Amino acid sequence: MSAILSSEPASFLEDSRQRAHRLMAEVQSVIVGQERAIKLMTIAIFARGHVLLEGDVGVGKTTLLRAITRGIGGQYERIEGTVDLMPNDLVYHTYIGEDARAHVEPGPLLRSGEDLSVFFFNEINRARPQVHALMLRVMAEQTIHAFKREYHLPHMIVFADRNQVEKEESFEIPSAARDRFMMEIPILVPSSRESRVSLVFDTRFHNTGNLTSKVTTNILNHTELNALSVLIQDTVKASAIIEDYTINLWEATQHPANYEVKVDGIEMDQLIKAGASPRGMAMMMKAAKVNAWLMGRDAVTPEDIHFVFHETIAHRLVFHSMYEARRTALARELTSSIIRTIDLPWP
User: Fold this and answer.
1) What stretches of the chain show up as alpha helix (H) in DSSP?
2) Quick one: fold of 2-201+221-228?
3) Distance from C-alpha of 246 to C-alpha of 130, rounded to nearest angstrom
4) CB 160 within 8 A of CB 53
5) How many C-beta neighbours within 10 Å does residue 337 have?
6) Model pLDDT for residues 256-271, shown as the tens digit of each residue
7) pTM (2 decimals)?
8) At what angle do helices 327-341 and 302-313 cross, to 10 degrees?
9) Where are the domains of the chain?
């Protein structure tokens, strides 16, 4: 809060916006071909929303998160989802010391204390539902009870990756749990040949430790991001026209046939079991406001909504069972069709 209290809100917002663009530029300089993903992750950070990451193995998710953590400050922790992972493994771990006695140390959620800013849960769907339940509770409450005391994690944002290839011994996250995440962001293999050549033959991309060290430390102050997020949401406005447009988009996710939204080869009145939730639409608007702020505007436009619509809404949609196996592709087609079909607030 110190920077906010010592300066005018407008000047603090402008200084923070410049720092946000510097963060994105520096991360993009060390992470090849992920410009859109980096901007969306930056939006999530300023909107204080947790993120699911979608992508194959080896596309650089860990490197990307380490680079972002270096730029915003605070500590980075991670844990690997496995079938034998237990809830307590997030909180503490035990080991036999040189004195031949059992010792207990804080686990990844507690190791950094209140300085924890980014927590990466790799392959979260390989962990059991009991582990998911603890993680979701900590995400919502930002506190955890352990060692006979309450620990606070006020600055933590969770990034979770799902293994979508190997389905053996995996526990898919239910729709209610997915709804707790602000976004699901794809981290894809770069499509340009130039980027692929760089990743394979440019040796600076082979040492992730040296690579992330190129990002300037503490471009932002992670302890100020909560207050900054509130200031952004209070400053950037949504007009009555944007409100109407947003509600139409929401209703189109619930009843696409009523809005003449179409997806090729699909009976639209049989596609959706549950559309976007109130929480989801509120998170979508929070993200749209952050995008408007990053673009130097003090009011939300349709373009701000369009930029974040798929990533904030698609993972919340629940399809009838006959379509669920195709949910990734169908969700993309549906959200794109909604944006194309619902009239803009102005010509």
Assistant:
1) 2-5, 9-30, 35-47, 61-72, 88-91, 129-141, 175-178, 193-201, 208-212, 225-235, 240-254, 278-294, 302-313, 321-324, 327-341
2) Rossmann fold (3.40.50)
3) 35
4) yes
5) 20
6) 999 999 999 888 888 9
7) 0.91
8) 160
9) 2-201+221-228, 236-341
